[in-house]
Amino acid sequence: MSRVEFGLSMLYSLNKPFKKMVNHLESIDAKIVEIVDDGLHALNKRRISILNEIRKSYELRFTVHSPFADINIASPSKSLLKVMLKRLNRSMFFAKALDAELWVFHPGNKTGISMFYPGEDWKQNVKTISLLHETAKDFGLKIAVENLPEKYGFIMKNPEDFIRLYNETSVDDVGIVLDTGHSNLEGETEAFLRKLSKRIVHMHISDNMGEHDQHLGVGCGNIDWKKFAKILHEIKYEKTIIIETVENVQKSLHKIQELLSFQ
Ligand SMILES: [Mn+2]
Q: Cα(first)–Cα(last) distance of the chain, in Å?
C-alpha cells in the first residue's frame, strides 16, 4: 500500500477570481491543497484569514507555490533582485501564516545579457537560494526548489544542476520538487527519481507531448505513467504528490492513485 499523500494545485483555477477558487476548496476531493500566490490569487492579509477559516472547517493542509511571473532569482540587476526578494519573503510570511507544509519556488533563468557574463546566472541563483533558505529558517518554514526546463531559459533542469547546488552550498534542508511535466521536456524523469530520491520532498504531476509545458491530464501526453509508478515504488517514495494539471484534475488524481495502488 502506497503511503504517498495526494493533493491538488489550484493552478487550474488561476484564471478565475480568488473567491471562485475559495468556493472550489469547499468541495475539493483532497486534503492537501497547493495555493498559488500569484495572479488573481496573490495572497494578502485578508485572504489569509479567509483561507485559514476554510482550512480549519474542512481540515485541509496547505502548501504554497511562490509567485513566479516576472520573478528571476538569478537576475543580474541588484535593484530588481531586491524587489523580487521582498516579494518572495512576503510570500514566505503568508505561507507561514497559513501553516503551510511547504513553500515551492522556481530556480533562476538566463537573461538577454547572460552570454556576456558566463557563469554569473548560476552564481546569483545559488546566492539567492542561500538567502531564501536563511529567511525560511527564521520563519520555521520548509522550502523546496522545482526543476524547470532549459527551453524556457531556466538553469536548474537536470539532476546534475541540483547535485551541484548541494555541493556548492549548505542548503541541505532545501528540498526538491520534481515536476514531471518539466522533467519530461528534458527526458530526465527517471534520472531525477533514481539519482535524487532522498532529496525529492514533493511532486507536481502533469503530462505533455514532450514539446511544451502543457499541464495536460495524466495519460493525455506521452509520459509512461506505469513506468513512473513502478519507479516510485522501487525508490519507496512516500512524500507528497500534487496534481498540477489544468484539465482532467480529478481524473488525473484518481488515475495516479490507482496506478500507485497496484504497485
Ligand atoms: Mn510545477
A: 8
Instruction: Give the Å distances, CA to CA, from 215 to 72, 124, 180, 209, 236.
Output: 22, 29, 10, 10, 25
Residue 146 grid cell: 522545482
What residues have a C-beta under 5 A from ligand 1, the ion? 179, 204
Centroid of ligand 1 to alpha carbon of 205 (angstroms): 8
CA 99 to chain centroid, in Å, comes to: 17
Nearest-Å Rg of the Cα atoms of the chain is: 18
- Cell readout for 38 is 500569484
Each residue's pLDDT tens digit, 15-39: 999 999 999 999 998 999 999 999 9
Instruction: Report the DSSP beta bridge partners of residue 216.
Output: 207
Q: Please give the distance, rounded to the nearest whole angstrom, from the Cα atom of residue 7 to the centre of ligand 1.
A: 13
Q: Please state the domain count of the chain.
A: 1
DSSP 8-state assignment for residue 217: P
Distance 253 CA to ligand 1 centre (A): 15
* φ, ψ of residue 220 in degrees (nearest 5): -95, 0
What is the tens place of the pLDDT at every residue in 42-85? 999 999 999 999 999 999 999 999 999 999 999 999 999 999 99
Q: Crossing angle of helices 45-57/18-25, nearest 10°?
A: 10
Q: Any idea what the CATH number is for the domain that residue 181 is in?
A: 3.20.20.150
For the cut 70, the answer to whether the pLDDT of residue 1 exceeds it is no
Provide the domain limits for residue 207.
5-261
Looking at residue 224, what is its pLDDT? 98
CA of 56 to the centre of ligand 1 (A): 26
C-alpha 65 – ligand 1 centre gap (Å): 9
Cα 204 to ligand 1 centroid, rounded to whole Å: 5
